[in-house]
Amino acid sequence: MAGRHFSYTQDRKWVLPRAGNLKKAANYIISQRQLKAPQLPGYGLVAGTCADPIEAKSAFMLNAYNAAGLESVATLLKAVGDPETDIYRAFADDYRQVLLKAFEKAFAIGRLIPTAPGRWVPSCASDAEGRGLQFMALNGEHTFSHRSYTAFDALIGPIWAIYLGVIPKSGQWADWLLEINHRHMNRHAIAETQPYYSRHPELHLLRGEHDLFLNAFYSGFTSLADRETFAFWEHQHKVSIHKTHEEAWALMQLRRMLWVESDDALLLLAGIPEQWLDVGQKVQVTNGWSYFGRFTLSVERLQEGGQIRLQWEPDFHTPPGKVLFHLPGLEVLPGKGIRIQRL
């Protein structure tokens, strides 16, 4: 979270007095790594609890967060010129490599899962000790929780590693994980229970899978938002109302629908429905904060088959490599580019 905060602000004065505590947090993660038995599947990782399950396992969600945290500490220390930056960068790099090896082994031993007629893909357990999807109960383990058999795999499974940048979002592993998730873990494009724990909607958006994102966004929003209180249920079976966790994730999905960062690119309006650009509709973001800095954006269609007015005013602290506008339902004629009017 400190790394995310710094991405927005680039406030080095905020980092300086916290550098010592950031190192303590990183040292705690490093001290918990299992380094005594290289032959065991969780070697180099942290075995602990993750979300609700009380069993200490080398969960991929837990370790993906740890890897992202160590990388953030190294980035923050570098930003303030800390002399121990290289030490923590080396720890972060080693942790990532160990985690990637654990994933490689998990996919190698994971059972094949059917995803389409004649198509089977390798599966990956939710932890380094597993042999495949937990809901298959290959070792006779308990799989039913939160009124679902797929909670472990769908909510705290390896998809988090894509979201946290450990697994590339466009690689073969990501293809397999999302393919299995889409075919076996979801009902109406969202997880069977506590759907906002699953990060597949954001990943579909980042991969340019626009319709899959929109299906998940509206399925989650309409099934969990209470129409009387405007608060969110935690589950579709109407247990635990007023969950700020769900409300925050719904807002973050809306934010990413309007703007989202992808490596060095800023994607604008990447997830909006085509109807939002009908004649008479207007999409406006005022002082939106991104990891590159603030911006103001306004888009409206003036007439059917005619002009669109797009106003754009960036105020970046770190200019992105590129800014991409997604304008669904609009066609740019050859030789007729889009002219951007500065506010």
Identify the notable features of this structure and list them briefly.
343 residues; alpha+beta; 3 domains; 3-stranded mixed sheet; 3-stranded antiparallel sheet; globular
Q: Count the DSSP helices.
A: 11
Tell me the radius of gyration: 22 Å
Low-confidence stretches: none
Distance between the termini: 33 Å
Task: Please outline what is shown here.
With 343 residues, this protein is α+β, with helices and mostly antiparallel strands. The protein has 11 helices and 10 strands.
What does this protein look like?
The mean pLDDT is 91. The chain has 3 domains: 1-187, no CATH class; 201-260, no CATH class; 263-343, no CATH class. Helix content is 38%, strand content 15%. A 3-stranded mixed β-sheet has the order 5-6-10. It has a 3-stranded antiparallel β-sheet with strand order 7-8-9. It has helices at residues 2-9, 12-15, 19-31, 60-79, 85-109, 151-155, 159-163, 172-185, 200-206, 210-224, 244-258, and strands spanning 112-116, 119-122, 186-187, 190-191, 259-262, 265-268, 282-290, 293-301, 308-316, 322-325. Strand 3 and strand 4 form a beta hairpin. Helix 1 (2-9) packs across helix 4 (60-79), helix 3 (19-31) packs antiparallel against helix 4 (60-79) and helix 10 packs antiparallel against helix 11 (244-258). With 343 residues, it is of the alpha+beta class.
